[in-house]
UniProtKB/TrEMBL annotation:
UniProt name for this protein: Phosphoglycerate mutase
Residue ranges the record marks as coiled coil: none
GO cellular component terms listed in the entry, alphabetical order: cytoplasm
Superkingdom in the source lineage: Bacteria
A GO molecular-function descriptor: phosphatase activity
Matches recorded under SMART domains: PGAM (SM00855)
Gene3D superfamilies in UniProt: Phosphoglycerate mutase-like
């Protein structure tokens, strides 16, 4: 039995040529999360991360803030889907850089549409697995934890796999899983209680490490 903490990576570089790296703020969010864990006396018996750069950078920063030394098990099934490939299934033209509120909203409208079709098996984004295969990658991590772990377990991943894990545990529709994904904030914590038979949702998308007024402008979504 134990508690699984699923953490979304810190703010990445949305709109940049290379999204897959933490921004300066994303680094600060992640260090602050580690400090919060240390202040709570929370340590981890097992750590899993995806293999993307922003996952690894987030965990390094959490370790820095938490002053603990636990090597992570790299788990490719916790990697994010390719949002550009998903959008290309419904909008096969180059998008303008989303640098205005309207372009930002347009980007995420297209992403919702593409995700809905991918999850329902209507489209096959180039270079991506089917949604069934993507789901299997996420559930393989959950199954590993149920069968092999106890105590406190940390996963560092992205919004898509975390929302997929929550949707799987709760049995939600694809549309609800997508809305969960769109709500997950950078460095947010989602908690599952687990035993050898099941995972149970305890909290979703919380930011206890950023509750102080000094951190009000550290809360981000992309």
């Amino acid at each position: 039995m134990g508690t699984l903490y699923l953490v979304r990576h810190g703010q990445a570089s949305f709109g940049a040529e290379d999204y897959d790296q933490l921004s300066a703020l994303g680094q600060q969010q992640s260090v602050r999360l580690g400090e919060y864990f240390r202040q709570k006396g929370l340590t981890f018996d097992t750590v899993l991360t995806g293999t993307l750069r922003r996952h690894l950078q987030t965990y390094v920063a959490i370790r820095e803030g938490g002053a603990f030394d636990r090597e992570a098990l790299l788990w490719p099934g916790l990697n994010e889907f390719d949002s550009a490939a998903v959008i290309a299934t419904v909008h096969p033209y180059k998008l303008e850089k989303p640098d205005t509120p309207e372009l930002y909203r347009h980007h995420f409208r297209l992403l919702r549409d593409g995700l809905t079709q991918w999850m329902n098996g209507v489209v096959s984004p180039q270079g991506m697995p089917s949604y069934r295969e993507f789901l299997a990658g996420v559930t393989s991590a959950l199954d590993h934890i149920r069968k092999n772990c106890e105590g406190n377990v940390l996963i560092v991943s992205s919004g898509g796999p975390i929302a997929t894990a929550v949707g799987h545990v709760l049995g939600t529709t694809p549309e609800t899983t997508i809305e969960l994904n769109m709500r997950i904030r950078n460095s947010a914590i989602t908690e599952f209680a687990f035993n050898p038979k099941r995972h149970t949702l305890v909290t979703f998308n919380t930011l206890p490490h950023l509750e102080h007024a000094d951190h009000a402008d550290w809360i981000t979504h992309a």
